[in-house]
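Good morning C.,

I know you're traveling, so I'll keep this short. The sequence:
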Amino acid sequence: MPAVEAEEAMKTVLGVSVGSTTARAAALAIADESVCSAGVVRSFGAAGQVAAAVQLLETTAAAQHVVPADRVIAVPDDPAGRAKRSAYAMHEAERFTVVSELGAQLRFLRGTGQLDGIRTVAVCDIGASGTTVSLAEPATGRVLISRRTTLFGGKVCDNAVRDYLLSTYGADELVSSSGVDALMVAIGLAREQLSSLRVAEIPGPFVAGAVRLWRSSFDEIVESAVRYIEGWTASVIVDAPQSMNALVMVGGCAHLPILRRVLRRDLRLPVLVPNMPESLTAHGAALLASDAARRRTRRPLVSVKTIEVPPTTYDTPTYGPMARHRSSA
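The tokens, ready to paste straight into the viewer:
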């Protein structure tokens, strides 16, 4: 193998996603787009979310020897402005390239083959701070409609659980603000656990000590909020100038069994939930970095593997190694 080709085969690209409470990174080997490294930073203030993501990008890039041209950061953008440009539009900065989080999500989904044959798709991004629904054409990146609400998300669910627990079990009179903050972290962890478990234990400032939260109780607590977001999502889809072929759930709250159940039952659309929906934005950003690197060198992908994806996903998420992707360039 010539030296230039050998160097290209060993090259690594990097993608980072910016969330309201979490930043994630994924480094891929450009030769076959397998995952070399993944990282996450959690629980930072809203004002510091971009700084935390950039710091994660710089740290991972240094460890993986990724040059600035091969770094892509996926950022939240104004949903109202998405229809004015392609979701795949990229903007070069000095230390990295910037892309919309929707573009990174669509790129990941195209790479898995889950959008094969789908002309239009609704991407329902349910994160900690709210929900964004974007209706787009995956092949072109054209965005038909994109809207956001803060009336449903991880924080809404966690606040409802906090109010329920404190009213049901009572709080220690000496509880401090730091104790309440610790309780919210514990509730967020319990919400994640209840995506696959029937019960989770929550330590906290309760009179009788730690309490158990059953999934059935959690479902009752958040049911009204889930019904709201189902109706709101349906109204966005109804307003589209074209019919949707499928809905894809992404973001951390895509793990919620009650949310999957209600959307699949009421939307009258195929509802897809990719494996690890909270991590795919960073992975998609890395795939866009890989696409750009190959365009610059005008070299084809050295090794290509296609993922076999079932028409629906399991209700219990698995956390195995990330699969390889095929190029959509």
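Safe travels,
E.
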